[in-house]
Amino acid sequence: MTGSDLLTGLAFVLIVEGLVYALAPSLVERLLEALRAMPPEMRQVLGLLTLTTGILLLWVAR
């Protein structure tokens, strides 16, 4: 993995996030409210699941 790969990955994250905020700002508000309502432990598990999914997808893609 090179610095260029990292920049490409970061660019994709920013593009997807920008699209979500631009096209569905009310959805973002609802998701943030749902996250606030979750206990911290559940948010931690959700974060770990998201991280694991991302790593697995990267591994499959490579």
Describe this structure in words.
The protein is mainly alpha-helical and 62 residues long. It has one domain (3-61). It contains three helices and no strands. The longest helix has 22 residues, at 40-61. The radius of gyration is 14 Å and the shape is flat. The protein starts with a helix and ends with a helix.
Total domains: 1
Provide the succession of SSEs. Answer: HHH
Shape: flat
The termini sit apart by 10 Å
Largest sheet: none
Low-confidence stretches: none
Oligomeric state as shown:
single chain
Summarize, please.
By secondary structure, the protein is mostly helical.
Key features?
single chain, 62 residues, mainly alpha, 3 helices, flat
Strands, helices and their partners?
Elements: H1 3-23, H2 25-37, H3 40-61
